Amino acid sequence: MNSYLRPAVSLIALMTVLTGVAYPLAITGVAQLAFNDQANGSLIHDNQGHLRGSSLIAQPFDGAQWFQSRPSAGSFATVSSGASNLAPSNPALRERIAGDSEKLAVAGQGAVPMALVTTSGSGLDPDLPVAAAQYQISRIAAARNIDGAALQRLIEQNTQRPLIGPEVVNVLALNLALAEQPQ
């Protein structure tokens, strides 16, 4: 029996050390060397070095003077991330979208872009289509008493052009750039 048990226990111990300790440490080391920013959460800091968030996770912005993110079914909490699972026929979804549309509507600009009133699959999408960011220019310009052309330039400077997919704007990065603008 000892001839069977000893090799089995030795193999379990060896595989535990290799797959449970050595491999994770090696992958962590490679990630820290090759992809340091991504391995540490893609964190964004302001000019003073204060941590403001992650470029991968949306966060709420209160007030008409800020660009608004997509709504979040989980109140922007990463623990409860996910869609609301409300069907298009659900009256609660229609009421929320109608209320959000009413809050964000700008006279003379047409319908509110869908990205501003519908949640993403995770509820934490940090990016907006460029058109959804541009839709907010007149509201923010009025609230901050600044020129809409300056806001358009900020959007252009913060537009990400991925290899695949549409152009998007990271709302946190855009709002940090907006905070640096003189008022």
Automatic annotation (TrEMBL):
Keyword Cell division: no
Membrane topology: Single-pass membrane protein
Gene Ontology molecular functions: ATP binding; P-type potassium transmembrane transporter activity
InterPro entries found in the cross-reference section: KdpC
Localisation: Cell membrane
GO-annotated cellular components: plasma membrane
Keywords: ATP-binding, Cell membrane, Ion transport, Membrane, Nucleotide-binding, Potassium, Potassium transport, Transmembrane, Transmembrane helix, Transport
Chief subcellular location: membrane
KW Transferase (keyword) present: no
Job of this protein: Part of the high-affinity ATP-driven potassium transport (or Kdp) system, which catalyzes the hydrolysis of ATP coupled with the electrogenic transport of potassium into the cytoplasm. This subunit acts as a catalytic chaperone that increases the ATP-binding affinity of the ATP-hydrolyzing subunit KdpB by the formation of a transient KdpB/KdpC/ATP ternary complex.
Family the entry assigns: Belongs to the KdpC family.
Subunit structure: The system is composed of three essential subunits: KdpA, KdpB and KdpC.
Protein name: Potassium-transporting ATPase KdpC subunit
Organism per entry: Pseudomonas turukhanskensis
Taxonomic lineage of the native organism: Bacteria, Pseudomonadati, Pseudomonadota, Gammaproteobacteria, Pseudomonadales
Encoding gene, per UniProt annotation: kdpC
